[in-house]
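hey so u asked for the seq, here:
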Amino acid sequence: MYLHAFARHAALAAALTAAALGGGCTTPAPPAMTSVSGTATYRERIALPPGAVFEALIEDVSRADAPALPIASTRDEAPGAPPFRFTLTYDPARILPSHRYAIRARVLHGAELLFTSDTHLPLPSGPDAAPVSILMVSARGTHPGLPAASGTLSVPGAATAGPALLRGEYRYLADAGSFTDCQSGVRVPVAQALDNAALEAAYLKARAQPGAPLLATLVGRIEERAGMEGPARPTLMVEHFIHIAAGTCASPPAPALEDTYWRLASLGNAPVVLAAEQRAPYVVLASVAHRASGYAGCNRMMGGYELDGAKLAFTQMAGTMMACAQGMELEQRFHAALANVAAWRLTGARLELLDDSGQAVAGFVSP
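ran it, structure tokens below
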């Protein structure tokens, strides 16, 4: 009896072993991965601030009415100086023949976009694809600062006009965005380039329904660009997206400390006087990541801030390192004022930053 039971168990073990060796029970093989390599750079002779990171991504860009879907990404926390080298590894099974895929590169400092690719570079096909080369552009265009005052879109001759601070109604429907300037009433299409991706993403997150208008604040310029069909037409280039909120040109929201463009109007008790072509210093406090960014008079600046009721402090403020013929002295005074900020006070469209004794160290206006 025991011999028969032993024989049965031995036979069962042998059968299971044979099945395993014969392929009856196999472990799924890992998917075969594919990679694409390349370099990314920018033309500006600007050193990146401490803490800047480089990212390269593969995105599914098939749907024009939705944000791009990431397929693969890589991130360099200490990129150094350009060119930045990268390798993106992805599963080819995720690449659908009916979809469109693109490679994108960008440089970030906290929540602030410094440089980005502004064209869709198609994902090369095949495992032996040649390395790709990406030229990134400044998220603020070729201008280191913002205009001294709000601009007005004027389509005739606007293709040669410089960037302006604009506020208007933005809509995104189907595969196109449009912007209606509040001051002039001019309506123009919006190019899918520069900082437009940030504008689209903020709109899609905040809209109540497709095509509903929202009030956007941005820095932009008009450029003649060819559309999908027909001749070239005036198009808005979004050089720097600032904020989007519920409201229309007829009913704009009241300015708030955060997510508002604040133009420097005074330092201490002295008003800030600018030369004819000098751009105005400004600061924007982004509520999403508590990041502060702006223009100090010669260089861009960025850092963080801590907010507790009426208390406010700027932290780890840094900037680019260009030399300018004008604005350097103003920049030093601006940075010194921000270092002494301990509180804030908002009265209508005027913001005052105060030191720990309650004295105003800087005053700002919201256009």
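The radius of gyration is 27 Å. The CA atoms of residues 102 and 122 lie 4 Å apart.
lmk if thats what u needed
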